[in-house]
């Protein structure tokens, strides 16, 4: 499709949070840390997130081309499955994030966890540990549903999600509807709210407060990503604040198949983004076999619009 849009003013602030919560822009933080602070050692401290390059994906291309990445949040309480054999760490947060740097726009596609993948398995079951091959299998499964290659996968689990949110000082969000769920710990009234790490996790986990369960939960996870970006922009941190946050995140990232040039490229893709130019959309799904879900007829046109250039125009 041909479009003409005014690209928003580039700013470091737009780069600061997406890596923390949605992964697609994590490269900007990490590469900046290496460049500015003398190569801090990746994953020197607790690993907050993994970034894995998929073997099947081609290079993401020129800096003005759309880029797609898979972001996963898992229920694991530990990075070592042997520590919690009864907690497989299913990926109940599944988001494909598309960035179109030429248009200064992006899309967060929220995919319900029970969506059916290859062979009839649910998409959330393709990762049951933090191993890189499990992440690549998850990327292949999601790619088969969405219809686009996913060059990189980013994963974060429960405790590290909380750590990341607390490290940036929490998130300001407008709660869309009342939430009262003892399972997730989400007890919120509608309206503006400041969430710490524990509260942000509860918000993103709650599915019992809604008639359509996981569909609302998936959409709320996307809302949290956008709210986090807006929160950091509103703080207007100094260059020194930004560098310190960059270094902090840079020490908590584990890389596999991803180099500094890849990270810097992804950082460039993030520099043009503004939260107002990011759409958050949940994949339309309906009943399939058993408790599985499958994309509806409406999803076909949405996905065609999405994979075309990463920007939704008619949805």
**What's the β-strand tally?**
13
**Uncertain residue segments:** 1-43
**First-residue to last-residue Cα separation:** 15 Å
What is the CATH class?
Answer: Alpha Beta
Helix content: 25-40%
Integer-rounded radius of gyration: 18 Å
Largest sheet: number of strands, sense, barrel closure = 7 strands, mixed
Describe the structure.
This protein is α/β, with parallel strands linked by helices. It has one domain: Aminopeptidase, CATH 3.40.630.190. It has helices spanning 18-21, 26-37, 132-146, 158-167, 197-205, 214-235, 239-250, 260-270, 297-309, and strands spanning 49-53, 67-74, 93-100, 105-110, 152-157, 171-175, 179-181, 186-188, 191-195, 253-256, 278-282, 285-287, 293-295. Strands 10-1-5-2-3-4-11 form a 7-stranded mixed β-sheet, with helices on both faces. Strands 6-9 form a two-stranded antiparallel ribbon. A two-stranded antiparallel ribbon has the order 7-8.
How are the SSEs ordered, and which strands pair?
Blueprint: H1 18-21, H2 26-37, E1 49-53, E2 67-74, E3 93-100, E4 105-110, H3 132-146, E5 152-157, H4 158-167, E6 171-175, E7 179-181, E8 186-188, E9 191-195, H5 197-205, H6 214-235, H7 239-250, E10 253-256, H8 260-270, E11 278-282, E12 285-287, E13 293-295, H9 297-309
Parallel strand pairs: 1-10, 2-5, 4-11
Antiparallel strand pairs: 1-5, 2-3, 3-4, 6-9, 7-8, 12-13
């Amino acid at each position: 499709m041909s479009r003409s849009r005014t690209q928003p003013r580039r700013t470091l602030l737009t780069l600061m949070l997406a890596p923390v919560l949605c992964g697609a822009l994590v490269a900007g933080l990490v590469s900046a840390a290496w460049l500015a602070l003398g190569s801090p050692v990746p994953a020197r401290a607790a690993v907050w997130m993994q970034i894995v390059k998929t073997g099947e994906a081609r290079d993401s291309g020129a800096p003005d081309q759309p880029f797609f990445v898979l972001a996963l949040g898992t229920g694991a309480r530990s990075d070592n499955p042997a520590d919690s054999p009864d907690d497989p760490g299913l990926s109940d947060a599944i988001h494909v994030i598309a960035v179109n740097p030429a248009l200064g726009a992006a899309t967060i596609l929220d995919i319900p966890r029970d969506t059916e993948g290859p062979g009839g398995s649910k998409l959330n079951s393709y990762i049951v540990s933090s191993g890189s091959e499990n992440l690549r299998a998850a990327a292949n499964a999601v790619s088969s549903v969405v219809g686009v290659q996913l060059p990189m996968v980013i994963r974060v689990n429960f405790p590290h999600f909380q750590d990341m949110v607390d490290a940036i000082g929490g998130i300001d969000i407008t709660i869309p509807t009342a939430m009262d769920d003892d399972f997730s710990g989400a007890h919120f009234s509608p309206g503006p709210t400041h969430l710490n790490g524990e509260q942000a996790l509860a918000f993103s986990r709650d599915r019992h407060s809604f008639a359509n369960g996981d569909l609302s939960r998936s959409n709320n996870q996307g809302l949290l990503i956008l709210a986090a970006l807006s929160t950091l922009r509103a703080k207007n941190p100094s260059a020194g604040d930004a560098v310190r946050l960059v270094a902090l995140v840079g020490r908590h990232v584990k890389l596999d198949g991803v180099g500094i040039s890849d990270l810097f490229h992804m950082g460039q893709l993030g520099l043009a983004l503004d939260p107002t130019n990011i759409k958050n959309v949940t994949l339309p799904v309906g009943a399939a076999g058993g408790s599985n879900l499958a994309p509806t007829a409406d999803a076909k046109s949405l996905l065609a619009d999405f994979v075309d250039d990463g920007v939704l125009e008619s949805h």
